């Protein structure tokens, strides 16, 4: 019986029309007011988004303009302005941007921990580095670029010693900096051609004095952190070391590589200050 009555009601066209009218007319005033309030809220939200969207890039551009030599990536603005291929999460708060004095990063070969630096030049012969893969590419924050030094070999001449005892040094534009961690990043090649053992030395000297082995103090000599292959254009594990003295210059050397590999290449050396 109940079902039948419901059906009769539902099928009654007059009843249905009245219901519709009631539904449409009664709440219309309230709905209008609600809509007005909603419009107001939506407009305010959109306006805020537009203002924030214009303000933030302007502030970032201004900051860029007034900061010619970048410091650490420790502030949130630096994280957004350092427009590198690394994602924001990959940029560690403690990573030091390796901007060199006069943007000069010096390649070296036949160079040993504590020993004098032998300058490497661009070219394809013994003791040279690939002109397009220059030492500054290891410090540019871009894992798409790389540094290849042939060391005791020449381009297309391969041996177990190629690329060993090579590296680079630079004077940090930001000045005296405490470094107590490093990471090395691989290139786009699939071979395990990254270094396996590396060293980092620090110095407070400048200019040609940096070619002297006596100017350098050893801070780290050990694994590169690449033994668990991180993958192409990815960085190895962080090597943390105990250092409490700040230096203005740093020298990085490759001391060993995987057996059978005929060259050494890496995309980045990242230095950290904790
Ligand atoms: C930032 O990087 C993007 C792509 O990653 C590029 O299109 C853009 O030009 C870069 N901007 C600056 C200021 O370098
Ligand atoms: C990184 O290097 C690659 C290859 O040279 C280049 O195409 C790209 O624009 C560079 N990215 C940045 C952010 O400079
Ligand atoms: C650093 O020093 C601490 C305390 O002196 C020690 O426990 C730790 O093993 C040291 N780390 C390295 C890498 O030498
Ligand atoms: C290098 O300079 C820094 C800062 O002036 C100083 O703290 C540190 O002791 C110096 N290092 C050496 C080995 O003289």
UniProtKB/TrEMBL annotation:
The chain crosses the membrane at residues 37-60. It comes from the Eukaryota. Residues 14-28 have a biased composition (Basic and acidic residues). Keywords: Membrane, Transmembrane, Transmembrane helix. Residues 11-30 are annotated as: Disordered. This is Uncharacterized protein. It comes from Adineta ricciae. The lineage of its organism: Eukaryota, Metazoa, Spiralia, Gnathifera, Rotifera.
